[in-house]
Amino acid sequence: MFKRTIKTLIVMLLTISMTMPIANVKAYEENYERNVMPARDYDKFDDNFNVNQSNSLVRSSQIPSTYNSVDEGFVTSIKNQNPYGNCWAYAACSVAESYLIKKGMASSDIDLSEAHLNYYMYHNKGDKYENTDNDQTNVIGKYSFTDVGADPRMLQLAMSNFGLASETIYPISKITTMQGSKEDQNNTQYVMTNSNLLCQQAKGNESIIKQAILDNGSVLACYYDTSTAYKNSNYYNSNEVNSFNHAISIVGWDDSYAANNFDNKPTRNGAWLIKNSWGTGFGNQGYFWMSYDEYSLGSVYSYEFKNKDEENIYQYDGTNNALRYTLSSNTSTYANEFLVKRTNEELNAVSVGSATSNIPYKLEIYTNLTDINNPTSGNCEVNQNGIIENDGINYIKLSKGISLKDNTYYSIVFTLFGTNENNASIMLDATLKGTDIEFIADTSNEYCFIKSYNTWGKLSDNTFRIKGITIKEEPKPIETIILNKTDITLTKGTSETLQATINPSDTTDDKTLKWTSSNPDVATVDNTGKVTAVGGGTATITV
Questions:
Q1: What's the predicted TM-score (pTM) here?
Q2: How far is CA 265 from the centre of its chain?
Q3: Of 311, 313, 249, which is closest to residue 276 (Cα–Cα)?
Q4: Inter-axis angle of helices 152-161 and 114-121, to 10 degrees?
Q5: C-alpha distances in angstroms, 512 versus 17, 241, 528?
Q6: CA–CA separation, 159 vs 137, rounded Å?
Q7: Who contacts 264 (Cβ-Cβ below 8 Å, separation ≥6)?
Q8: DSSP bridge partners of 287
Q9: Shortest CA distance to 215 belongs to which of 92, 390, 69, 62?
Q10: Would you say 363 and 384 are in contact if contact means Cβ atoms under 8 Å apart?
Q11: pLDDT at site 324
Q12: pLDDT in tens, 169-218
């Protein structure tokens, strides 16, 4: 690969430790099982690295002291993940459902498929353009794909790749017998547009999390679950655990929730309302309260979604490997090139994965490239500036739609402007083998470039998480020409001017009408439609 200016930083940890035994679990309610995933360490947890920059996310002049999205009607019913360790899929679907309900994009009975998300996280079949067909995220350890769990950083990649499907079509009862196809993987109703790591640790970042719940209905988070930290429907572990083994959604809060409610008394009042996925038999009909002081509560993410419609995605990053590039230079330029493989396509948005937030960017789109080793060798169709807002996936609408020509190359070129305090980092895909999961990134068919000293270098073993998002181009309306007369009779030497009207009349293109006569010895016509009789006979005038 082009190594001169790049250093890689692996930010996803795949270390595994044994989960807590469930033999000593108290039955606070009846008829439930505590299912968790293998424990994983948090990355940079103690740094709490993005507190200051995330404070800009708090916009409400006065955040209420108590709130919950359940009472507002934004939260779907409690599900039961038993017997699987795929809490992450349940938490993600719940957060998506709440967002879609709150934004008026779905009814309150929406039910998204955890089975589909779980299965295709670890059984990639590829995309419609065949650019990611050989990329794989494989379970290689002792756990099955239903129990191995997933880092939240992996989760955002899957939801931006193929999206979320309906529970009716892919029910959880079929998860262990699924034999999916590429068509099934991409048979989704919604796709994630933006993800944002609000904070690595919830403690100390309450206002940021509350604002996101007010905006989107809920957020996803993780914590380290242990049976000894529960008291009735309340959870607080006084030990400072720097790992997680369970994912949930936070759907509300109460600043006055008494510290005395917890078995191990925290230092202050206040608690989060947690929606769990262990059925209604657990806690208070499936919900419980977690103290603001809970040290292990972290990896708090907010997500945004859109209807997938007829949208297609040009992408090379088909694994769910959460890596990033941090360049030594403050200003860095990256590019992905794609071969157009369909007709009647319009590029109307792009997305980029960033490991830093609030980074200025310049975006350029080039079409009809003349040199595939130079991403700027074509026609510059878009040149726009903005801010990379999210530490996560960023969906960027283009200033105009771009018609793509079949069997030509186009490029998406990002220039990121970092600072000494906040270097720009871009997400990438690469092959990596961990303890229980391996990522296989096929780069043989990819065109990913980085610019250094005005020279483009092609990557050979990594892929930038830069995607082109297209829709089916609307066909232009068929134009017809209407004449004021279809038959005229003239004597030799006389003239008459025909009037032609183009339909539809709201066309914006300049039109030049061309007039012809089938027999100029009988009649002639000029470029204004004036017909002059020359001799006897019949002639056809065409415009």
A1: 0.82
A2: 40
A3: 249
A4: 100
A5: 75, 75, 10
A6: 14
A7: 229, 236, 237, 238
A8: 275, 284
A9: 69
A10: yes
A11: 74
A12: 999 999 999 998 999 999 999 999 999 999 999 999 999 999 999 999 99
